[in-house]
Structure formats: C-alpha cells, structure tokens
C-alpha cells in the first residue's frame, strides 16, 4: 500500500514538473516570437514613413509596364503566303501596326459592354434611305441605304448585323461612319422581323441559312450592275456571310469583290460552350437569349392566332442561346437537333471552299470565341482567307485610345482601309487559288 502511494505521489510530482516546464517553454517561445516580430517590424519601419503617393506611383508604373508589354501588341496576321497576303501587307497599314486598346478598359467583357454603351451614346443616329425588298416566299426585309455624299458609281458594301442587331446598332454606325469618309456606300441588310419591319411569313433567320442574303446580293447586283460590290458580316452576320461564300464557291467571284468578317464565332460549338462555362460570359449569353425571346414574343403575338406554330410557352422559358435554338431555331429550319444546326452553322471547316478575298478581324480574348477555336492552322493554309487577331478587343469591341470617343474606331479603320484598297488597286483575284 505504502509503495503504491509513493508511486502515485511520484507520478503527480512528475506531471506538475512537466506542466511547469511546458509553460516555461511556451513563455520562452512567445518571447522569442515577439522579439522576431519586433525585428521584422524594425526592418519595415522605414517603409511606413514613405508617402502614400509613392505607392500609387509604384503601382502606376507597374500597371503601365504591364500594359505596354502584355496588352499593346502587333496583331497576328494569319494567311498563306501569296498575292492576298502581300496585298494586305502593302495596302492595309493596320495589319502592321500595334493595337493600343483603351488603357482603362482592355478586359474582354469590359471592351464588349462599354464599347456598346459608349458608341450608342456618342454616335448619332444615321438617316437611311429605306427600301423594302419582297423575297421569293413573300417575306420582306429592309434594306437601309447610307449613300449621302456618294456618287452613283461609288462602290457598295452590304452589311449584315449580328444576332439581334439592325441598322441603328452602334457597331453598324461605326462602320457606316468610316465608309462615308472614304466614299463607300453601305446598304444594311436587316434580317426578317428586325429593323422595325413586321414579319410577313412565319419564318425568321438563322446562322446557317443564307437564302435571304443570296436574294439581297442578286437584287443589289441587278440594280447596280456596273458598281463594285462587297459584303461585311458582324458576329452571326459573319456566319451567314461565311456560309454564303462557302456555298457559292467560285460563283461568288462574279457577285462580290471581297468580304470582311468581324468577331465571327468560327466554331459555334466552342462559342456556345465558352459562354456557358464562365459566370460573366453566361450573363452575356442570357442577355442575348432574353433579347431573342422578346423579339419572338412580339412577332408571334402580332397576329391574333399567333405567327408561329410552336410551343411558345416553352420557348419563352429559354435561358440560354442553346436552349432557344433547341426549342425554336432547330424546328424553324428542319434540323434534327441543335448539334446538327450548329454543325451546319459553323464555318471553321469550310474556309477552303471560299473563292473571294475574305479578311476577318478577331480578338484573342473574345468571350464568344476562345482563341483556341480560331482556325489559325486552316487559315494559314488558305490563300483566299486572312485573319487579323488582336491580343485584346472582346466581342465587337476593339476600343482604342485613352478616351474612345472618336467616330472612327479600330474596326472601322480596318474596314475602310481594306475596302478602299480592294476597290481601287485592281487586286486580281484570278491569281489567288487555294493550296
């Protein structure tokens, strides 16, 4: 018994000694840490005396260095060696010069949104001469002519707006302003149901169908048989134009002198996927889907019985472009599913079929078309197609300068330089053949 008590007492004593030892060590550690912290504070103490302005200057210098070396870059010109590439390098200076995106707004989505807002407020409305063209199936489209100050022999460029755009869209006004300065007439082809024209038939438009464009080209060519004619497509309008040129092939030579695409979603699968994965891109996707829903709702209820034989309630619940296309576009144009439609709409695999000079402008950071989806390899092997890829610019943005309030922006300047050269230099397309 005595031995057990002595043993228990010894254990308690050892524990007490051990606890005190731990506390001593802990206090010593805290003291050591405190001394180290004081030493570190002493090292940085001189920095606390530096005025805040110096930190601002340091950040400003760092930002400027980043801007100059990572943002400002000479665009990538992709085109096979040959007459068309030589023509661009000689007659279109912008392909050789650095692109200076707006200093305070070079992020892709900021370029996309702010460019639209600024242009819509800065650029005045354009007075057009409207012409209603009745198509072969009884449908009607509006052709808006911008020809003030031009002669009857001035060359003409047909402009195809984007998904929900019309002749007063801010990017259209930007191009028309640039064309006016170099004496080029523009005619804006408003898709069915857009531009204030009521729908006459239960049919709208889609990226893969170029029947309406074909009729417009034939009509403009018929009334101006001896005037040089070209075309420009923006975003989805670029898909329609690209598909038209691929389908027409060599026959397009006798109709169009050349084409220009801006922010075209080359690969529609990649474009829709990119706008569905990122939160901010998804917001842009949903905004366009909501605009399509509103247009469809307005057109559908323009007649007492409804214009379209569709499940309108289901369509109006579409939250994304893919859902809208699945519920409406696919059924309108007889596709099996949205995958078949997107496969027909995409143009990245049809470039070898294009037989007229086609210049394209894309941004590497376009939220609607990731850089890896731009068909750089295919274009580098195609002598009729060239693409200028800027490091920044967003989707139909391409704002440049400290305060981008000028009417003529980067894409407008590229538009006017390219078409002026195409119409005046006598560029011989017969020398341009694909590999």
TrEMBL record:
Family matches, as Pfam families: Abhydrolase_1 (PF00561)
Transmembrane region(s): 52-69
Claim: Membrane is one of the keywords in the record: yes
GO molecular function: acetylesterase activity; monoacylglycerol lipase activity
Domain of life from the UniProt record: Eukaryota
List of catalytic residues: 235 (charge relay system), 366 (charge relay system), 395 (charge relay system)
Domain AB hydrolase-1 as annotated: residue spans: 155-401
Transmembrane in keyword set: yes
Protein family (similarity comment): Belongs to the AB hydrolase superfamily. AB hydrolase 4 family.
PANTHER family on file: ABHYDROLASE DOMAIN-CONTAINING PROTEIN, ALPHA_BETA HYDROLASE 1, ISOFORM A
Name of this chain's protein: AB hydrolase-1 domain-containing protein
Source organism of this protein record: Melipona bicolor
